[in-house]
Input
Amino acid sequence: MKEMTKKYSNGEVTIVWKPHLCEHSGNCVFGLPGVFDVNRKPWIDPHAATTAEIVKQVALCPSGALSSYLNQQKKEKA
Output
């Protein structure tokens, strides 16, 4: 099975989702339900919270299925 990776950006931060790693702890959904809503397609809306809130919540993902990076930092490294 191919391991999929999806990215969602609000222009400042990019959320990276690797569904094959997800343990369905619900931390993301309970912590930022406006951003992470399993009943919506796509289920991640990076415009529904501030960049700081997103970075903080994504860091709480226990499985590593969610990660994030600041777009400006990515450009500086390139």
Q: What stands out?
A: The chain is about 25% helix and 20% strand. The chain has a mean pLDDT of 93. The longest strand covers residues 13-17.
